[in-house]
Amino acid sequence: MLPFYAQPLPSSFPAVMPLLDALGLGEKVGALVSKQWNNGVTHGDVLTVLLLMILDFGGPRPISRVDEWAEQFGIDLLLGIDPAQLHDDKIGHTLDALVPVTEAGECDLSLISTLHHQLAHTAITRWGVSTDVLHYDFTDIGLHGAFADSELARRGKGPTRRQLQLGLNSAAGSGFPILATVHPGATNHTVSVPENLAALMQRLPGESFCVVTDAGGGSYDNFRAYNQADQHFISARQLQQWEQEKMRAIPREQFELADHRSRQDERFWLHRCDWPTHPKDKRDELVLSAVVVLSENKMRTDQKKARKQMRQLLERLVQIAGYAGGRGSYSRPDYVREMAHKALNKYADAGEFVRVEVSDEPALSWTVDWAGFACYRRVLGRYVLFTNLPEGEYSAEYVLEQYRGRHVVEACYRQLKSDLEIAPLHMHKDNRLLAMAAIWVIALMLLSLLQLLARRAKLETKRGQALTGRELLKNLLAVTAVTCTIAGQTRASVGPLSEPAQRYLTAMGFPEPQHWINVPPIDMQLLSGI
Fold first, then answer.
1. How many CB atoms lie within 10 A of CB 146?
2. Is the pLDDT of residue 136 over 50?
3. Which of 466, 444, 471 is nearest to 456 (CA)?
4. Among 422, 399, 384, which Cα is nearest to 168's?
5. What is the pTM of this model?
6. How many helices (H) and strands (E) does the chain have?
7. Bridge partners, 13 (sequence order)
8. CA distance 443 to 110
């Protein structure tokens, strides 16, 4: 009797292999790094296996055990390569080839940058990924290992933690990562913007785009850089004291109710005006277009915070007054006065409306300008968005909508850290850290493309929610092939998928999973003859 075996396959392959084929990943890697080992395994094969493993819904896999994973999940059936050849040295050679080290000891990013550029260009042209609006932000990636001599792994949050910074430019709507940059840990987001802008213009030559960033990316120098490059931006910025007073001085009646609503149906009011800025250390004044936003939710939150701060300040003053005139330092008026002013500084927003007096006894007393505090609370909930978009072509509401779309890049980071589990990285060489970070970004490209195609096909989950790329991969869990050997030749047929998985793949125009199997299918008529 002919023996049959059940061979598990990577859950991601029915959805990921069509994208890798359409992007031409293997050909692009082969053109950049053409080395092939005697056993026929190429750098493109290694990269394909790593991407399948990262996107596999079975959970995170240690990079040190790629060969074990490849054997468990039938990579020989998919790519026709011996899993034992995917040992640690082979993986390391591929990472070194993607990001080689020069004779001067510097990491050469030209190859991996070219690969990212080619993949992004193919995705933009093939699937019409829009690049008109790009969201830019930073996140930290934790590292494990000893990095005493590393220029990349630096101390970040926590006393002993090492990390690097990852910057992403994600397309609005699709979330596709147009550009990714890796920076040493604790790099300031603000100073990275000019370099990022130059890289974007190389990635999108001759195109006009608008970069949306939070207050971390907003500064006088960055705004001038966008103007000089003839590109657009929408950004918040930390306001100086006089700017905060200017913002709060705008009468409420000058704000117009926007049609835009939050997911919780919170309202926004907008006021657009010119906003000159001229730091003391800069020669020229820069006049920006500003959209002052009054947020219903932020107003409620800020007012609650102001009440809490006033309550905490008064409680602290009552405590100090109880200590005043007692033993030790509190017997001195200057010390009581010092403690009172420390409390005013700690709760600075509420402290502006409290006046304290310390008598010679010493005794502490205070008065509160409740009317002024009430006026202050009424003008809370405001923030300013700066832009150089022409006011006649782009409304204040458009500026608000694009800025509030920043959840796109935040979702990318959430996918990297939660769905793809990029952190922590267990590498010990800077070039391999850079290579693995780049591979994870390619995985994010694939995940965002799956989500884009699912959205265009109007696919939904059983609960009626929009199908995400990760939810699609979840439905492909436990893909299995039936294998047997006939006349010395291995044959395999992919078992049936779940009804939702089959429906999703068909709606997205993907071929049957059997298409990607590297060996002939099992011929049932031949079996019946045997």
1. 10
2. yes
3. 466
4. 422
5. 0.88
6. 20, 15
7. none
8. 19
